[in-house]
Amino acid sequence: MVGLKRELAMTRLLTLTGAGGSGKTRLALEVARDLAGAYPDGVWFVELAPLSDPDLVPQAVAGASGVREQPGRSLVDTLADALRGRRMLLILDNCEHLVDAAARLVDKLLACCPGLRILATSREALGVAGEVNRAVPPLSLPDLKRPLTVEELEGYESARLFVERALHRPSAFVLTPQSAKAVAEICRQLDGIPLAIELAAARVGALAVEQISERLKDSLKLLTGGARTAVARQQTLRGSLDWGYELLAEPERLLFRRVSVFAGGFSLEAAEAVGAGDGLEEGDVVDLLSQLVDKSLVVAGSDGKDRFRYGMLEPVRQYGWERLKESGEEKEIRSRHAAWCL
Fold first, then answer.
1. What percent of the chain clears pLDDT 90, i.e. is strictly above it?
2. What's the half-sphere exposure (Cβ side, CA atoms, 13 Å) at 38?
3. Which sign, positive or negative, has the C-alpha torsion 279, 237, 144, 1?
4. Are strands 132-135 and 13-17 parallel, antiparallel or unpaired?
């Protein structure tokens, strides 16, 4: 949090990226709440998720910031003039499905409004000059290799979130040495994704934490029942993943489905061996894989040997595997995977 506030003070466009349900919006609001006093003309929040038409992005910003349209003049120019003298923070939330329109507007406003800073959330960066992109990491996870005391478990962000949400349920849940192991297993299985952990905690009362842990092998079926006031894609884990999947181009969908066969991560060479063919050229795999990383569906990291290794958060991989089975390619991709391993 401190680092993000420092970065926002040093740049005019900070974009928080991450997988669906990773807590980007909540983090942006927390940063904005702490910095509200630093902006004499206020902090303005613009929710882009309900929009489907790119032309409505300027209208959403104008509506949030109190700027009215002027006859015979483009709304973008009107916005630029109205915000030119303001010292304010503009939060653009959920830009991923309107990323081109958001990027054009942001570029124009930053060029014309020297006192304006923008904090954006998106599953991929906007690609605007001067943008600083910060990936929102999963919550810290407990170590299952050793027994944890209640006090030690509460030192992990994922466990604290689960316990906090579970205690709000109308149940007799209490974190004890006996339930601590199951809570730790839940957090690990969900790879520290805040939305997934909140949805799992919502099952407390109807299920014991041990039962929740046992049933998370099919987390997409179990993790439903978010807040009624939340948008549909935040009420179930599947809804959040559906949203991101629908934004992919067809070649990206093909590779996303196919690499879900790798439960323990994979190399670029493995992705090429398993993902290429039947609609994908081997030479296209590296670019498509990079795009999936940019869109927060695949995670990339060094393998310690000057090479990159790739993987998916487990709920995301389960979703990709489900889509693979629906596509009718499962048998072929499993055969390629077996051949690569051999």
1. 68
2. 14
3. positive
4. parallel
Instruction: Choose the weakest-confidence range: 220-229, 231-240, 281-290.
Output: 220-229
DSSP class of 236: S
| Mean pLDDT of the region 244-257 | 95
Neighbours of 294 (CB within 10 A): 16
Residue 281: pLDDT over 60 = yes
- CB-based contacts of 34, cutoff 8 Å, min separation 6: 1, 5
Report the C-alpha gap between 167 and 33 in whole angstroms: 25
Q: Are 130 and 110 in contact (CB under 8 A)?
A: yes
CB 258 within 8 A of CB 329: yes
> What is Dmax (Cα atoms) for the chain?
69
Is the distance from CB of 221 to CB of 188 less than 8 angstroms? no
Mean pLDDT of 85-106: 96
DSSP sequence for 247-284: TS-HHHHHHHHHHTT-TT-B-HHHHHHHH-SSS--GGG
For residue 224, what are its two tokens?
A: 């439903």
